[in-house]
Recover the amino acids of this structure.
């Protein structure tokens, strides 16, 4: 079964259908929301950043540990991977409940 990929435009069309806004207005608002979320998640002044959207989920920036024994799959060489930051998404209750009931 082929995976269905939805784009930002698809989401904007769905929002437009439910809100009655014009597509360019919907896309403008979505762009602003995503830009704000990106800027907030990239904020270096905070040690850990967390954006909680009730009934949807939580986006959080976490620190990933260094990996001194990683392996380059191409050359089989052992390499060191320095510590870094990563983004983590945790689904909200409604989404979690749906996914736990969904049949494969």
């Amino acid at each position: 079964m082929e995976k269905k990929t939805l784009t930002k435009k698809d989401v904007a069309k769905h929002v437009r259908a439910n809100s009655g806004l014009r597509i360019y207005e919907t896309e403008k608002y979505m762009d602003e929301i995503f830009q704000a979320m990106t800027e907030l998640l990239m904020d270096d002044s905070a040690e850990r950043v967390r954006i909680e959207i009730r009934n949807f989920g939580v986006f959080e920036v976490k620190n990933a540990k260094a990996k001194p024994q990683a392996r380059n799959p191409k050359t089989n060489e052992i390499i060191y991977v320095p510590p870094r930051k990563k983004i983590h998404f945790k689904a909200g209750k409604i989404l979690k409940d749906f996914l736990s009931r969904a049949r494969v």
Summary: The beta strands are 50-53, 57-64, 67-71, 78-81, 84-91. Residues 23-41 form the longest helix (19 residues).
